[in-house]
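Researcher: Please translate sequence to structure tokens.
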Amino acid sequence: MTTPPTASVAPRSGGWCDAHLDLAYLAALGHDLSVGLGPGHERCATLPDLAAAPVTLCFGTIYIEPGLQPDADGVVPRWGYVDRDDLEHAARAARWQLEWYLAGERAGRLRIVRWREDLEDLAANASPPRLAVVLLVEGADGIAGAADLPGWFDAGVRVLGLAWARGTRAAGGNATTEGLSDEGRELVLACDELGILHDASHLSDRAFDELLATTPRRIVATHSNARRLLGDPAAARHLADRQIEAIAARDGAIGLNLYGRFLARDRAATLADALDHVEAIASIAGRDRVGLGSDLDGGFTTADLPEGVRHPTQYASLDRGLAQRGWTEAERADFRSATWLRILRASLPSRPSAERTRPRH
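Model: Translation complete:
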């Protein structure tokens, strides 16, 4: 189905929405995201670099890394946990990243988008003074279970991806053949009750199908490409045509992942490869159902990005490339931000009446 344009939601600044940035994970690794690095550096997902694009809205992840081992003193690094049974360190790592976003909001470095009305505030501001962030949990191991989810919602989480590549207690990841567990199904239903959006990126094919069978709600894939343009082993990480069709049928959207190995096999990726994936997805879902979900600095450096798109300020080359391929200004505006804004406007809950009288951050 095609969602009609909603002009009142699009920010007048013409900024970008990037639907996948591992900001808190990078901070947990020790990177200073307050310092701009500029083009040519091995990293580029800092707040000043994003502002230079300008990226005015993003989905900021809470991604905790599995497979970490304790040191000689029994200390597990703060950005991750040992395995899916390591509930203590998974919860600690996830809470650390949540607090990083909350601290950034208190300090005025960013603003967390919790309610539909927050998008209207963004639209009304021609030059947003700080990055607006939708909180996305990528991999559910940091959440103790469905009963724990309301606390995460209250803190601001509005999108949940049940798994990362290796899978979680909730669901199989793209490196597995597992489906949803009973805990995962309970989380899906709890998401539906609270109004948390489902992210299917990283799900195994079986888990994807079981997610569709468990919920009738909207599903997105924040940072996945077109499987048919890739061969094994990279292909399982991305979306088959039938999955793209399913996401479109659920009134969802898909974000282009800029990691070079997810764009081309056995050679350096190019801008043309990135555009090919955009068009492959759009040929099935429609041009109003594909946006950006760059995954910048999410475990790789700028050298792993396509030539010409190695810094947020170079997102404009994607826009120019689509124009050269015949995309209209309205269609390119969808890709830049309007698609994700429409999804959020349709998905986010409205601010409770008790919240409407409170001072805004």
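Researcher: Any highlights?
Model: DSSP finds twelve helices and nine strands in the chain.
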